[in-house]
Amino acid sequence: MSEHHHITPLKIYFRVAGILFFLTAVTVWVSYVDLGFLNIVIALLIAGTKATIVALFFMHLLWDDKKNLTAFVLSLMFLAIFIIITMSDTEFRGAINPEIKDPINKRAAFYDSLPLTDDHGNPIHEDGSHESGDKDDHH
Amino acid sequence: MSDNHQNNYLTYPKGIMSWLLTLDHKRIGLMYLFGGMFFFFLAGAIALIMRYVLATPEADFVTNDQYNSMYTLHGAIMIFLFIIPAIPGALGNILLPLMLGARDVAFPRLNLFSFYLYSLGAVFVIYTILAGGVDTGWTFYTPYSTTSTTNVIPMTLGIFIIGFSSILTGLNFIATIHKMRIKGLTWYKLPLFVWALYGTSLVQITATPVIAITMVLLILERLLGIGIFDPALGGDPVLFQHFFWFYSHPAVYIMILPAFGIISEIIPVHSRKKVWGYKFIAYSTLSIAFIGFLVWGHHMFTSGQSVFSQIVFSFITYFVGIPTGIKIFSWMLTMYRGQVSFTPPMLYALSFLFLFTIGGLTGIFLGAVALDIHLHDTYFVVAHFHYVMQGGTIVAFLGGLHHWWPKSFGTMYNQTIANICAIGVFIGFNGTFFPQFLLGLRGMPRRYATYDNLGSEALVEQYAATHSYSTFWSGILGLSIFISVVNLLWSLRKNNKLDPGTNPWGALTMEWTHTTSPPHPHNFEEEPVLTHGPYDYDKVLVKPTLKRK
Ligand code: HEM
Ligand SMILES: [Cu+2]
Prior knowledge:
heterodimer, A: about 140 residues, 3 helices, B: mainly alpha, globular, binds protoporphyrin IX containing FE, binds copper (II) ion
């Protein structure tokens, strides 16, 4: 806990809120533009930026004792370790046995009740082939 | 020192409510100690029954289903209700503030709350037992755990709740270590047990949320059919193993780091020497805690995970050996040319060095993918983890218990009996578990109640001979532990009090030099002043004194 509390001018709160709303609008807008796999990258970048400014301004990490910021960043690093190393499994599983390639089985019984589509809304046929889209969209 | 009963946290304040609502870290520590020991004996009894069943190839008086339930309960109770909470919860709670010169932990109320969360989780586990058990193994692997008709939900809910207790204790200890040290007690003057608790606490607050969320996901999948792990619902069963081991490998360091801390205290005191390589030991604790987060996939070499991750995990696993080796060598160099005395705590510490080294080295074997494909799910793994968890953690715990028993209760047990039991534990342990390495190498699978149809007659005969040998020694092991605990409890009889100023091992850490045994309810009668480092045996002359009242 820091000894004195930083009082943030209201102006800054409103400005930050404005930026957040603007970025939300950008997220919605960009989701209508088909950029292939870049869609997900851009969506995550925007979401990441928003989370960062919320943490820095609304949660006061920018002005607080820097230990708090360190703890916060370290926790993100832990999450990154978990996800990235787990993906070193799910993304490379097909390297030797192609039949176990997909981390999630889109042809599971559960999906029978849903119309089969890929991330871009393109129908997927019973044999697993796609109508269009690139080969990266098995999430 | 005045001989007033108000100077003793055990007798003041009085009454059952003063215990149940206590905020005193020492009393909370004792409640953890007795809770933990209860579950230790419960799970131990289950283990002895299993050993009895395994002495012959056929199942003797349990069905296969009952056997499945027994090993699940044995493992889950030992891990989640004894090993993980017991050392930090019991010894950690009792000692940490005393070692820091503090009056209590940073958040005493939160500390009591942690204990009640632990108790609530324990209620769920007991319910599970009474309701007929659970048969998934302590690992709860999907897809079986989503379909098993046994009590998966109460058990996992119990573990979920105990997880919060673990997180809150970790949080409390970190805050205590940062904020409650007395003046002049800088980081490098901390006893190494405190460093060990710090490393443990870091792992507890970073890893435990993952097991909690894993249990929740499992429960949601069972109750609501959300497809996360079940391939029939579009999930990925191997993902469960990632979740589980992302917690459970770091959790093995929650189990072993406090044990390292205990050993780092016992060895210098009973060798009357300054600890060798203080900073090496301190920093290897932190690096083990960190590397421990990067190796979880070594439990999944046969799960169908990608070959790429197998190589990565195998490679990183070997790095764990470096800081671990540093510690072992530092302890040995601490003893070198010291005046080693063969007291009960020291005998346990010496057993620890021997047993943990075997456990750690066989861990490196298992970290090699090619070898592990053969050894996975055999008795070799069972032997490995008993060497580290029982030979390592539980032996260190018993050593710590004997070391700090006079401090906690102000009584001394019969040291000859304790020494005999310590030797009994060592021999019984090796007799029980060393043969299991051989069984594993010959292909005996774990988690089987019977093995009469696993191969040729000659092979089954070999298995039976080795198993019955193991069973015989497990009886000696159980008996030795039982007698050693009775010996401790027997010291609590009337008219067996030590002089409150006594320092039976001649130790220099603050809990021995600055307060009475048993300590004052507020730990120190006056504000303590730091006079020496924890291991200054080269500078301060302190003699063991064992005075009775
Ligand atoms: C030198 C450090 C260690 C290494 C390299 C190591 C490596 C391994 C590996 C590779 C396995 C998986 C074997 C298999 O299932 O095929 C394993 C299992 C296990 N290890 Fe270790 N280990 C080490 C230390 C420890 C410690 C300190 C503990 C606990 C205090 C521990 C507890 C366990 C447990 C409980 C299992 C079995 C889990 C199960 O499948 O039920 N290990 N170890
Ligand atoms: Cu592991």
